[in-house]
Amino acid sequence: MIATPDGLRTVCWDLPCEPSIVGKARSMVRGTCRSWGVPPQLADDLVLVVSELLGNAVVYGRPPVRLSLWATTEELCVRVTDHGPEDPRRLDLSPEAIHGRGLAIVEALSDRWGVVHSADETGTGKTVWAAWQWCGERSGAPLGS
Q1: pLDDT in tens, 58-93
Q2: Structural domain harbouring 58
Q3: Which of 103, 141, 142, 143 has its CA 20 to 30 A from that of 72?
């Protein structure tokens, strides 16, 4: 983890492009949330969003896959990058559908989300991100103290 004097905290993991990594990543994210003082409800939402975004990346994307989190005193963000050529799609599904709700979950749980396309020479790949407003810690002391 990297922390800067202005309160920015970041962590990044390069992950194997295999479905079994999703559970391990949830645990890593939960531990990071605890160390950053992220409230449990927000941490639960973040962990579920990571599951959805990372699951999509390892199933539909291409390696390398990178998971990163960053937090300031006002915002928390997760990014999942893969090098597959296809954009994620939000599907409108019937209530009986068992798959395909990942981006609807991301949209429902985060304050905002989006996709940034790769600017590398291959022209493939993207970063899918989600962000939340929050009151984090400043200089090690909770806000308002």
Answers
A1: 988 999 999 999 999 899 999 999 998 888 776 666
A2: 2-139
A3: 103
List the one residue out of 82, 61, 62, 79 whose CA is nearest residue 70: 79
pLDDT (mean) for 19-31: 95
Number of domains in the chain: 1
In the sheet with 2-3, reading across from the earlier edge strand, the strands are 2-3, 9-15, 65-71, 75-82, 126-133, 112-117
Tokens of 58: 């390892």
Using DSSP's 3-state secondary structure scheme, residue 129 falls into: strand
R_g of the chain, CA atoms, integer Å:
16
> Angle CA(129)–CA(70)–CA(64) in degrees, nearest 5?
55
> Could you check whether the bond before residue 64 is cis, i.e. omega within 30 degrees of 0?
yes
- Whichever domain contains 78, its CATH number is 3.30.565.10
- CA separation for the pair 92, 118 (Å, rounded): 26
In a domain, 145, yes or no: no
Minimal CA–CA distance to 30: which of 51, 54, 61, 7?
51
What are the tokens at 50? 């990571």
User: What does pTM read for this prediction?
Assistant: 0.83
